[in-house]
């Protein structure tokens, strides 16, 4: 059988109808091909994207198409928000989170909230938990005045001097130590 | 020569010099390091790699490998506590405090039944089904401050959490979703756009059936009679007055549950959702209807 397969006629049979595929080296092994029969158009039979479109598919199952169905409300419920929903004022916020107040804009300084309406006060832990730095970000206005107020507040609460660092260009204040909860409380009390 | 003359001389020199530009500046000294190993003084030495061994040959062996000895970390027999940990179902936690927070921030509509799809939609919770995450484990952090009447469906809940929700007059169900349906719940829009029909939800695996059929864990396959009995038992245990669901103005919302085969609220398996034309395709074929109903 093997000898039959290796014969030239069998080789030509494999490539019958796929003349475009035969490489220059192999062309003379099989049946003789005139140059006109080798088309320059490439055909990638192995590539799914190059296969022709399937037309005239027989619909196997019947579907009932309902326009403006009553169930569309359930579909809309599942679709993602197009933008972050606006927060409606409530009587109480049991989670302890408070939205930003109007009166905060009257102060000489201001802390911007982030997209999730959280205060931009963070704790930075580095050196395997050896160094903890509380960071107040997105400060607008008189940052030095705010630094004095924060220092004063922390000194009154903890009854000792607490180191801070002001970065005017970066619009942030760093407080040495973990004072995130105290700072949050201070910021909420100011209305930020 | 006075200093004034020097200044003026320097200024005239500056005026005659070309402007500083990218074309006439050079790098700071020491900016570039020569990548070549020098052969001069000390250059023929070891080049900081030490004498012989791993340092010179760059074959850094794996941690704990003792060049063929029976390694220390394998010498003692041990109890395999984490055996099969990579195959176990995981439920990434979501606390009652976080749930209250997204309610306060209006990211969650409590006038509608809540399920994993609406919690993921809020943007405050995410999970990956391909990392063996099987949904939400609602934890009791913030159980004391929780104050919302909701109808929630989670995948895992402790007794304290069930008590905290039922204390406020709410309803909780624990329900199982197979990973494929979790993908749909994670991003329903993407699924609807793919134009496929909504599949059926699979039944829980053998080791999860006990949890999801027990009334104590408020399983979705549990007997409703047993659940109402257990609600009373839990109210007595934690010492709160049980709300009567039948008298509630939101009775219909609080009683809304999914079918064990259903993935989305209000949408049945087999339907195709066309977002572009805003229409729903429902199968008419009896063969398909039988398949999706089973």
From TrEMBL, chain A:
UniProt-recorded name of the protein: Large ribosomal subunit protein mL49
Lineage: Eukaryota, Metazoa, Ecdysozoa, Arthropoda, Hexapoda
GO cellular component entries: mitochondrial large ribosomal subunit
Predominant location category: mitochondrion
Keyword Ribosomal protein: yes
Keyword Transport belongs to the record: no
InterPro entries reported for this sequence: Ribosomal_mL49 (IPR007740)
Gene3D superfamilies the record matches: SUI1-like domain (3.30.780.10)
Organism: Leptosia nina
Gene Ontology molecular functions: structural constituent of ribosome
Assigned protein family: Belongs to the mitochondrion-specific ribosomal protein mL49 family.
Superkingdom, taxonomy of origin: Eukaryota
Assigned keywords, A-Z: Mitochondrion, Ribonucleoprotein, Ribosomal protein
Swiss-Prot/TrEMBL GO biological process terms: translation
Intracellular or extracellular location(s): Mitochondrion
Pfam families membership: Img2
Automatic annotation (TrEMBL), chain B:
Ranges annotated as spanning the membrane: none
SUPFAM superfamilies to which the protein is assigned, alphabetical: Ribosomal proteins L15p and L18e (SSF52080)
Cellular component GO terms held in the UniProt record: mitochondrial large ribosomal subunit
Assigned protein family: Belongs to the universal ribosomal protein uL15 family.
Alphabetized Pfam families for the sequence: Ribosomal_L27A
Annotated segments matching region Disordered: 21-57
MF GO annotations: structural constituent of ribosome
Keywords annotated in UniProt: Ribonucleoprotein, Ribosomal protein
Identification of the protein by name: Large ribosomal subunit protein uL15m
Annotated Large ribosomal subunit protein uL15/eL18 domain residues: 94-173
Top-level taxon: Eukaryota
Tagged with keyword Ribosomal protein: yes
A biological process from GO: translation
Protein source organism: Leptosia nina
Keyword Ribonucleoprotein part of the UniProt annotation: yes
């Amino acid at each position: 059988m093997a000898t039959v397969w290796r014969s030239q006629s069998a080789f030509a049979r494999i490539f019958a109808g796929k003349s475009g595929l035969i490489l220059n080296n192999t062309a003379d092994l099989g049946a003789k091909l005139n140059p006109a029969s080798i088309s320059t158009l490439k055909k990638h039979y192995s590539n799914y994207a190059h296969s022709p479109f399937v037309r005239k598919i027989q619909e196997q199952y019947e579907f009932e198409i309902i326009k403006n169905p009553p169930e569309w409300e359930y579909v809309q419920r599942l679709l993602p928000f197009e933008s972050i929903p606006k927060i409606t004022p409530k009587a109480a916020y049991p989670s302890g989170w408070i939205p930003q107040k109007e009166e905060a804009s009257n102060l000489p300084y201001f802390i911007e909230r982030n997209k999730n309406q959280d205060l931009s006060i963070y704790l930075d832990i580095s050196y395997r938990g050896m160094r903890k730095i509380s960071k107040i970000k997105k400060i607008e206005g008189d940052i030095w005045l705010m630094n004095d107020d924060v220092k004063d507040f922390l000194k009154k609460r903890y009854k000792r001097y607490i180191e801070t660092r002001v970065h005017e260009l970066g619009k942030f204040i760093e407080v040495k130590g973990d004072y995130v909860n105290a700072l949050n409380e201070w910021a909420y009390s100011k209305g930020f | 020569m006075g200093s004034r003359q020097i200044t003026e001389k320097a200024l005239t020199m500056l005026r005659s010099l070309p402007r500083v530009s990218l074309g006439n500046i050079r790098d700071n000294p020491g900016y570039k390091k020569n990548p070549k190993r020098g052969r001069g003084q000390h250059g023929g030495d070891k080049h900081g790699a030490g004498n012989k061994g791993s340092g010179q040959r760059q074959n850094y062996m794996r941690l704990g490998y003792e060049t063929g000895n029976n390694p220390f970390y394998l010498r003692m027999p041990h109890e395999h506590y984490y055996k099969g940990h990579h195959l176990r179902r995981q439920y990434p936690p979501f606390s009652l405090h976080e749930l209250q927070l997204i309610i306060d921030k209006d990211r969650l509509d409590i006038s509608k039944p809540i399920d994993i799809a609406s919690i993921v939609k809020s943007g405050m919770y995410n999970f990956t089904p391909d990392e063996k995450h099987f949904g939400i484990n609602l934890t009791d952090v913030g159980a004391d401050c929780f104050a919302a009447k909701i109808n929630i469906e989670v995948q895992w809940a402790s007794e304290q959490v069930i008590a905290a929700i039922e204390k406020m007059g709410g309803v909780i169900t624990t329900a199982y979703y197979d990973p494929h349906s979790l993908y749909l719940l994670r991003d329903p829009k993407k699924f609807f756009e793919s134009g496929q029909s909504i599949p059926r939800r699979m039944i829980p695996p053998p080791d999860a059936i006990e949890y999801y059929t027990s009334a104590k864990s408020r399983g979705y396959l549990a007997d409703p009679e047993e659940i109402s009995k257990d609600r009373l038992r839990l109210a007595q245990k934690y010492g709160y007055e049980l709300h009567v669901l039948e008298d509630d103005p939101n009775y219909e919302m609080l009683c809304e549950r999914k079918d064990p085969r259903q993935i989305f609220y209000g949408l049945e398996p087999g339907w195709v959702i066309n977002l572009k034309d805003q229409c729903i395709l429902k199968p008419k074929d009896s063969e398909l209807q039988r398949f999706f109903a089973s």
